[in-house]
Each structure stands twice: as structure tokens, then as C-alpha cells.
Amino acid sequence: MQRRRFTIEFKQQLIQEASEIGNASQVARRHGVDPKMLYRWIKQTEHADWKNTDPALKAVKVYTPSPHEFRSLEGENKQLKELLGEKDLEIAILRDLIKKQNPAYRTKLK
Questions:
Q1: For residue 33, is pLDDT > 70?
Q2: Which residues lie closer than 8 Å to 106 by C-beta, 6 or more apart?
Q3: Where is pLDDT greater, at 53 or 92?
Q4: pLDDT at residue 107 is higher than 70
Q5: Phi, psi values for residue 33, rounded to 5°
Q6: Which terminal Cβ of the chain has fewer Cβ within 10 Å, N or C?
Q7: CA-to-CA distance for 62 and 102, rounded, in angstroms?
Q8: What CA–CA distance (Å, rounded) separates 15 from 37?
């Protein structure tokens, strides 16, 4: 089987068409290209686009809540921790009751 070389323009055209249609395998079949090859081209261009992007645009913005919002989040967090503690306590009590009533379950429950 002989290898074929594709021009950069042809590759870019297929990649653009695949992104517009949303089905890369269909585009590859239409143009007589192996779908795996087209997927590889798409992946390579995504990595190249990321490398060529300005570092300032890649920076993640930090969200800082206002003091009021921060206090409300802390209160909600405290309530959820209390709820979780109560549920854990309930589970421990129920397990102890089961162990006392049915000694055979002692090895199964931990």
C-alpha cells in the first residue's frame, strides 16, 4: 500500500469541515481519508492552537467572594458539616443496634 501525502490546505479544509458538520468520520469517508487520520489531524491542531495562544489569555481568573457572600458560604458549610455529623452518628447507632440484635452480622458490618 502506497502512502499518500496531503497538503496542509487540504488538511485544514477537512478539519474545518469536520468541525462545522460535527461528524469527522463522515467527512473522512467522503474525501477518501482514514477517519483515524482525520482525528489525529484534529488533535494535532488543537494542541498547536493551545501552544500558540497568548499566555495572558490562558490565565485563569481568580474569583474572590465579597465579605457578605463569604460569611454566607461559611454558614452554609457549617450547617452541612453538622448535618453530615448527625447522619454519621445515626449510622453508627443503627449499626450497633443491629450488632446487638443479630450477633451473626458482627463480621459483615464494619
A1: yes
A2: 99
A3: 92
A4: no
A5: -115, 145
A6: N
A7: 54
A8: 11
Confidence of residue 39 (pLDDT cuts 50, 70, 90): very high
**Virtual CA dihedral for 85, 88, 94, 95, nearest 10 degrees?**
-140
Please identify which residue in the block is written with the cell numbers 501525502.
Answer: 5
Grid cell locating 34: 482514514
* Dist. CA 64–CA 38, nearest whole Å: 42
Has this prediction a pTM greater than 0.70? Answer: no
Per-residue CA distances from 56 to 7, 59, 61, 67 (Å): 32, 5, 10, 28
Return d(Cα 38, Cα 14) in angstroms, integer.
Answer: 8
Looking at residue 101, its amino acid is: Q
Q: Is it the case that residue 109 has pLDDT exceeding 70?
A: no
Please state, in angstroms and rounded to a whole number, the distance separating the CA atoms of residues 64 and 83. 27
